[in-house]
Structure of Xanthine dehydrogenase family protein subunit M:
Amino acid sequence: MYRTEYHRPATLAEAAALFERLEDPSYLSGGHTLIPAMKNRLAAPTDLIDLRRIPDLHGIRRRDDRLVIGAATTHADVAASAIVRDAIPALAGLAGSIGDTQVRHLGTMGGSVANNDPAADYPAAVLGLAAELLTDRRRIAADAFFDGIYTTVLEPGEILREIAFPIPQAAGYAKFRNPASRYALAAAFVARLSGGCVRVAITGAGNSGVFRWEDAESALYGRFEPDALAGMEPDATDMMSDMHGSAEYRADLAAAMTRRATGAMGGVNIL
């Protein structure tokens, strides 16, 4: 058994200083990917730096035309927030569909987004809503943030502080879940932003993780209703294939979830 030291900084500055000083540290937020990886010896950090008690990483507030959520805010808090339900009900519904009660009360939005699991829910909302991600060093647009499976443009030691979501004219989320893990086999977040811009983000299905389905965006820009997507599917060569479903199956699921999300404006459709 290897030795791991646990640290619980009170401020962002203290967390950043610990990361610079320690040998091979990892930040800890919800821990739903990191802890299982450690148990299976796929990760062995010398130190864990727990970010969950830092006040600057918490909170939900509406700022003009944006909904701003701290990175250490739990899924349960997002799902229960009257502010979120009023501004972006589809985001509250998405948070309420994650895992089970225990997962929702421990997992955090920032941990999910920074980890960029290919089957995670939040990356679809971040990309679909054209969110802006604020770190302790810079601001990053959603289109520039995700960089492949389990990879983002965050630099070593960089801390995700909060995510600012533009409040859309309408948004919906639909997910087909693995019945055991409740991770998405395919899910779609569809949003119509101010000015009529339409964005469609698919998670759970792509070889490279979350992605925008631009052909669907073009179709919905002209006619924002499920029937506008009739006969359309993402390219199956871009879909993942594993024991849970072939690439062709996931392409079909992604298309079906996009149609359902378009028809579920203001809410979610979970299968």
Q: What stands out?
A: The chain has three domains: 5-50, 55-166, 170-270. The mean pLDDT is 94.
